[in-house]
Amino acid sequence: MTTVHPAKPEFANAELIKPYKGDSSLGNLSTPINDSALVRAYIRNLPAYRPGLTPYMRGLEIGLAHGYFLVGPEVVVGPLRETVHGANLSGLITAIYITVSACLGISIFAIATFQGSPYRAYSSPNDDLRPLRRKEEWFQLSGGIFIGAIIGAFFAYWLLENFDAIDSSLRGGVNVSQLLCPGSANTNSTQSRRTQWQTFLNLPEPMPRPGYPGS
Question: Is the pTM of this model over 0.85?
Answer without folding.
Answer: no
